[in-house]
UniProtKB/TrEMBL annotation:
It comes from the Bacteria. This is DNA-binding transcriptional regulator, LysR family. Pfam families: HTH_1 (PF00126), LysR_substrate (PF03466). It comes from Celeribacter halophilus. GO terms for biological process: positive regulation of gene expression. Belongs to the LysR transcriptional regulatory family. The lineage of its organism: Bacteria, Pseudomonadati, Pseudomonadota, Alphaproteobacteria, Rhodobacterales. Residues 5-62 form the HTH lysR-type domain.
Length: 302
């Protein structure tokens, strides 16, 4: 098979072959449905041929798609062998440029960076902090090789992949009467002193919708820009907060506790790389280590 298709595009094609809808393929790959649809359009444009026919909400593969898919087992098997056998990175004088928002950068990134350095001591890393919104543009422009963000990127210049899904939790002091409850619901928060995140955060829109549906109206005394500031205000007795537990739960103050919030509100954390270039071996190795680290800490975020 000779074409300019990327590995990521081939992974999307295989997922579409397996699941027959963009939504199911997106769930299987940890991507958004628009990202799957956009990738399919790019593949069809590259090849100049239709790969799937849309019929009744399903994607039916054409003969061209079946032909490509028949060759993918060999490709994916070879990649798996390479990833399993690789113990070092090719020499590179160029640092790997990483970026995250403050919560991930301060609460999770050091764990991965330190272990990455132990495994690949010759690979230099430059890490920076910024808001998820601002990092989308900077990654699209190629200023960073990889970003870990807590809101779904929707930009044609980036490739995004979800690597962690956590349910929203309610954080409070242990001496708060709500701490005696196993689960917190919107009605429990009605009239409660509350620390909200500012409206630019994905969690804010999600929590507002759930609270409004239950006609619950917490007393939002503070609106803050970071989860760290929210939890510190809760620690000082300013109220309770709804947060994405990843990665804050790893370093939650002993005076605080977190309770599951219901109905479930799923929060995703994403890898983001420039769409204009393929990730380097260092970036792929770092992403793999992130997945391993998240898996090893999984119980903290349930």
């Amino acid at each position: 098979m000779k074409s300019d298709l990327t590995l990521r595009e081939l992974e999307v094609l295989r997922a579409l072959m397996d699941h027959n809808t963009a939504t199911a393929a997106a769930e299987a790959l940890g991507l958004s449905q628009p990202a799957i649809s956009r990738t399919l359009s790019q593949m069809e444009a590259t090849l100049g041929r239709k790969l799937f026919l849309r019929e009744g909400g399903r994607l039916l593969p054409t003969d061209e798609a079946r032909k490509i898919d028949s060759e993918l087992d060999v490709i994916f098997a070879a990649i798996s062998r390479i990833e399993t056998q690789s113990t070092d990175l090719p020499p590179s004088e160029r640092p790997m440029y990483l970026a995250t928002p403050p919560t991930i950068g301060h609460g999770f990134l050091p764990l991965v960076m330190a272990e990455f350095n132990r495994r690949f001591p010759r690979q230099k890393i430059v890490a920076d902090i910024g808001s998820s919104d601002s990092l989308v543009t900077q990654v699209a422009e190629g200023r960073f090789d990889l970003a870990l963000v807590d809101s779904e990127p929707n930009h044609p210049g980036v490739w995004a992949e979800a690597f962690r899904t956590s349910d929203l939790v309610c954080v409070m002091r242990r001496d708060n009467p709500l701490a005696e409850r196993d689960v917190i619901t919107p009605r429990d928060l009605d009239g409660q002193p509350f620390v909200a995140q500012t409206r630019r955060h994905t969690v804010r829109a999600a929590q507002d919708g759930v609270l409004a549906a239950a006609n619950a109206h917490p007393d939002a005394i503070f609106e803050v820009g970071t989860v760290v500031l929210a939890t510190q205000l809760v620690l000082q007795g300013a109220g309770v907060a709804l947060i994405n537990p990843f990665p804050t739960i790893l370093r939650l103050d002993p005076a605080l506790c977190a309770r599951p919030f219901r109905p479930r509100v799923a929060m995703r954390t994403w890898f983001m790389t420039p769409a204009s270039s393929r990730p380097s071996a260092a970036v792929l190795a770092f992403m793999k280590l992130v997945r391993e680290t998240v898996a090893s800490q999984k119980g903290y975020f349930e």
